[in-house]
Design a protein that fits this description.
heterodimer; B: alpha/beta; four-stranded antiparallel sheet; 9 helices; 10 strands; 35% helix; 22% strand
Chain lengths: 277, 249
């Protein structure tokens, strides 16, 4: 195992905890509302945005947020109105995002290329105190927003049309979910990596959905799984010197496999990811 | 004053050239039990969604509770319980019955306000009224189609609505569930002083209490009036090409 200063370890552990918390909470919405395609597209757009930030010597987190939100603004209404299938959304946006990202990386001076590639896989050592502050603000904001507007979000999670029919202004809540997803992806990008951050969002929440029918419990269970996966991913990364992003993804995959095996729903032959409303 | 009034309403779906419902003029009075009938594709659901403000008319005016729905749709919808057509929930859906019924109350409670004990009492009263209180802690997806339908009715009632819109509530229900649900609607209508607007396919679903029957065909209201008048009219025959007794399921 690599010997590291304790302040660094503490920073990484706090960062991993906050990233696991934020991603898995957002994941509960993404999985239940079948927004996986939009979220997936946003995470890769954020990666392209961060690559552009590096090229232009702008804070990559800012440009990543800009790109992710741009995709949310474009794909949110398009997928709603045109009723595009998730496959079509990914099919169009994924190659564009990746093409842009690699163009931006290709244009970088050689010295900056390794930093750009870190955006793909994530880097434990990239976490600064400013990043930690962003993660803390994001996590607290997500918890506050979900707590304050819980009953509205639950209605929308259950069925957006029914929520609207009963007098809830669904649009701001729906777009706030996309907005928070964009922010979460962008803020965790440097740490976990653009290609893999999405696994922490989807796999952890999908695991939580295997265990209970009570949506209130899922909002507690999902972050617990997210934090465990993040921290065990950090352990794996330090123990075996593997990239942090890939380590966390492997942990989330193990968590999902275990959740399916031991699922309460699985016991009744219904242990599938509830991707459809 | 009518509780629902539509004047020269045309509704066109986005991307479509021609209106799905056209030149609709309709009045529904307080505590009416209005049934809307018509062949498939005649625009019944579009009419309901236009009344509720889920669809915005391309032309004309929809007034509910004396207010233009386009100006204050969100607040008007809080007073309209809406049972949507054709829903069925995945058995894995992670929502308990009591939480689903409480969702009906969300608009009434209001943004930034918290759920109080009195809200839960009301939710349990609604579940009791439709006889699903024993399922309160069960996942919605584990219930039968008829039970899910009752839960969704409880959810609509939890809004404390003045108007209840029911879009083909008997579709996908077996004979027994249909009979039970019909009785339930009658009980609610009598107990709650509601105005009910119900789309149905079969004449035997039109209750005795029904005060108005609206006949639609190809996006237009072709006749409206007392159920016996409409059923015995020449228009009825021409729309269905049937005698009234042939139209029962």
């Amino acid at each position: 195992m690599i010997e590291l200063p304790s302040t660094f370890i503490i920073t990484v552990l706090i960062g991993a905890t906050l990233a696991g918390l934020a991603c898995s909470l957002i994941g509960t919405f993404i999985v239940q509302m079948d927004l996986t395609s939009i979220g997936f597209s946003m995470s890769h757009a954020a990666f392209a945005g961060a690559a552009l930030g590096l090229l232009l010597s702008i804070n990559p987190t800012i440009t990543a947020i800009g790109f992710a939100l741009l995709v949310a603004l474009l794909l949110g209404p398009i997928s709603e109105k045109a009723k595009l299938s998730p496959g079509v959304i990914i099919g169009i946006s994924f190659p564009i995002s990746m093409a842009l990202a690699f163009i931006f990386i290709n244009l970088q001076p050689t010295a900056a290329t390794s930093e750009a590639l870190n955006l793909l896989w994530g880097n434990l050592y990239s976490l600064t105190s400013a990043d930690l502050a962003y993660l803390a603000i994001l996590s607290v904001s997500i918890i506050l927003i979900i707590t304050v507007f819980k009953k509205e979000y639950l209605s929308i999670l259950f069925d957006k049309k029914m929520a609207k029919a009963s007098g809830i202004n669904t649009k701001p809540f729906y777009f706030s979910i996309l907005f928070l997803t964009g922010l979460t992806v962008a803020v965790t990008l440097k740490f976990i990596g653009g290609l893999l951050v999405y696994a922490l969002i989807v796999n952890t929440a999908a695991s939580a959905y295997q265990f209970t029918y009570d949506i209130n419990k899922i909002f507690i269970l999902s972050p617990i799984i997210g934090i465990i996966c993040s921290l065990s991913g950090v352990w794996m990364s330090l123990q075996f010197n593997t990239p942090i992003g890939t380590s966390i993804v492997i942990m989330t995959a193990i968590a999902f496999t275990l959740s399916v095996i031991f699922s309460r729903k699985r016991g009744t032959g219904e242990g599938v990811i509830p991707l459809h409303n | 004053m009518s509780i629902v009034e539509l004047k020269n309403v045309n509704t066109i779906y986005e991307g479509e050239k021609f209106p799905t419902i056209e030149d609709i003029n309709l009045h529904i009075e307080r505590e009416d039990f209005a049934c809307i009938m018509g062949p498939n594709g005649s625009g019944k659901t579009t009419l309901l969604e236009t009344v509720n403000g889920l669809l915005t008319p391309h032309e004309g005016k929809v007034t509910v509770f004396g207010e233009n729905i386009e100006n204050n749709g969100k607040d008007i919808r809080k007073k309209i319980g809406y049972l949507l057509q054709n829903f069925s929930f995945d058995p894995t859906k992670s929502f308990l019955v009591k939480d689903v019924v409480m969702m009906g109350r969300t608009g009434k409670i209001g943004v930034l306000n918290t759920v109080k004990d009195s809200d839960w009492d009301f939710v349990y009263d609604c579940m009791e009224l439709v006889e699903v209180e024993n399922f309160a802690d069960k996942p919605i997806g584990k219930l039968s189609g008829g039970e899910q339908q009752k839960v969704m009715l409880a959810r609509a009632l939890a809004q404390e609505p003045d108007i209840l819109i029911l879009d083909e509530p008997f579709t996908n229900l077996d004979y027994r569930a249909k009979k039970e649900f019909k009785k339930l609607i009658k009980k609610i209508y009598e107990k709650k002083d509601l105005t009910i607007i119900m789309v149905t396919h079969s004449l035997d679903s039109v209750p005795e209490e029904s005060s108005k029957l609206v006949l639609m065909d190809r996006g237009k209201v072709v006749l409206q009036g007392r159920p016996d008048e409409v059923i015995n009219s020449e228009k009825w025959k021409s729309v269905y090409g049937l005698k009234p007794e042939d139209n029962n399921d």
